[in-house]
Amino acid sequence: MAKLAGIPASVINIAKQQLKRLEAKAVDNNNQQLEITLLDSPAVIAEESPTLQSLQALQPDNLSPKEALAMLYQLKQQLDSEQS
User: Looking at residue 33, what is its pLDDT?
Assistant: First the structure.
């Protein structure tokens, strides 16, 4: 489902790893409450995509409609190449 929603494969893989860890802890700890912060994962911190960096640097208020559309296409192409 996440893949259909356009979530990058790297994020899906990290989520699967976190789920496996949680399931393993649940077996070990029985009914204790477990907490996890995905953003604390080194894989998430180290894996900031170029597309995300481009998006963070973008100042849409300073773009003409034509420039904004061109940027949208560029970001989409960049994201597609990252996911391949």
Answer: 52
Assigned token pair, 83: 């996911």
Half-sphere exposure of 35 (CA within 13 A, CB side): 1
Tell me the Ramachandran region of residue 65: left when phi exceeds 0, alpha when psi lies from -120 to 50, beta otherwise. alpha
Query: CA dist 64 to 18, 29, 37, 68, 70, Å?
Result: 42, 56, 39, 6, 10
Whether 39 and 45 have beta carbons less than 8 Å apart is answered as yes
pLDDT in tens, 22-67: 777 766 555 555 555 555 554 554 457 788 888 888 898 999 999 9
Number of C-alpha atoms within 13 angstroms, CB side, residue 18? 17
Count how many residues are written for the chain: 84
pTM assigned to the model:
0.45
